[in-house]
Specification:
By secondary structure, the chain is α/β, with parallel strands linked by helices. The chain is 28% helix and 26% strand. β6 (81-85), α4 and β7 (103-107) form a beta-alpha-beta unit. The model is unreliable at 322-326 (pLDDT under 50).
């Protein structure tokens, strides 16, 4: 089939490569404009653009896809289908109506659950045991179109936003190829979404990672995993930002035993109640967190054992400022 592919981040690369491998004609790859990043403001190509150039595919980077010149270009290409994977712009009806088989979106959740910008991370943060990917026909609403195919992926105990991202990127590519085969053969089905079961996965922000130790250790540990590797969970120690990448939950009973062993009768939220060679333990609203993997401001990410060799900590010190959002 003749395909126009729209995507921007790493998540969309696997699917683009799969479309090419499956033998479809990719007439155009559309991605967001290049941006200047870092201290040197070096202009960086999007991951999809980098992949497209390696595959010798034509690339377009319109500031706004709704502009008449770009819409006319798509009409001239006359694609059978437009595939959209984490593109980053809304498609107007003038584009949605161009391909004869429709605009098809690959979304990283089991719709109608987790519509929106960050379904992968929220699946971890909310403690789901399974999630998945969905292919759907696009319409004017945000992730509201009719479902074509879905694939379920279980979450393991140690799942992070990053590990789940990788799994769903691979699964999404497979599901899209199946979907294209069904579209081409005329066997693709349409299933309307149940609005009563819809939920929204809001966009991530850096301040979401500010750990509020008055919350339960279970909830905070899920937040740490969900925001790993970006934007990452963090707290403050001696005025410096301390990113936390991995922690273990201690239940309330175990946390109380540790506090008593350290002669701490009434621990405060965020208080360090135990330190050993490999970790330190922080008191939470319910239970405690044993911190295993971290990164101090200005330093590299490391195991807590390495951190403790070069940084002084003592039982009773308080982490954070408790001015938290999530």
């Amino acid at each position: 089939m003749r395909v126009v592919y729209m995507g921007t981040p790493d998540f969309a690369v696997n699917t683009l490569e799969a479309v090419v491998e499956a033998g479809h004609e990719v007439a155009l790859v559309v991605t967001q404009p290049d941006k200047a990043k870092g201290r040197g403001k070096k202009v960086i190509c999007t991951p999809v653009k980098q992949a497209a150039l390696k595959l010798n595919l034509p690339v377009a980077q319109p500031e706004k896809v709704r502009e008449a010149d770009f819409v006319n270009r798509l009409q001239t290409i006359a694609p059978d289908v437009i595939v959209v994977v984490a593109f980053g712009q809304f498609l107007p009806e003038s584009i949605l109506n161009i391909p004869r088989l429709g605009c098809i979106n690959v979304h990283a959740s089991l719709l109608p659950a987790y519509r929106g910008a960050a379904p992968i991370q929220w699946a971890v943060i909310d403690g789901l045991t399974e999630t998945g990917v969905t292919t759907m026909y696009m319409e004017k609403g945000i992730d509201t179109g009719d479902i074509i195919c879905q694939s379920v992926i279980p979450l393991v105990k140690e799942e992070t936003g990053g590990s789940l991202f990788d799994k769903l990127a691979v699964e999404g590519a497979k599901l899209l190829i199946t979907t294209l085969e069904q579209l081409e053969s005329g066997t693709a089905t349409r299933t309307k979404q149940d609005e009563s079961k819809s939920s929204y996965a809001k966009m991530l922000s850096k301040d979401m990672g500010n750990l509020d130790f008055s919350k339960s250790a279970v909830k905070l540990e899920r937040l740490i995993r969900g925001l790993n590797p970006w934007p990452s969970a963090y707290t403050k120690i001696d005025g410096k930002t301390l990113k936390i990448y991995r922690a273990e939950v201690l239940d309330a009973l175990k946390a109380e035993e540790i506090a008593k062993a350290g002669n701490i009768s009434a621990p405060s939220f965020g208080m360090v109640v135990d330190i050993d060679k490999k970790s330190f333990t922080v008191w939470c609203g319910e239970g405690a967190l044993r911190i295993m993997d971290l990164q101090l401001e200005g330093k590299k990410r490391m195991d807590t054992s390495a951190f403790l060799l070069g940084n002084e900590m003592h039982i009773g010190m308080i982490l954070g400022n408790n001015e938290n959002i999530l």
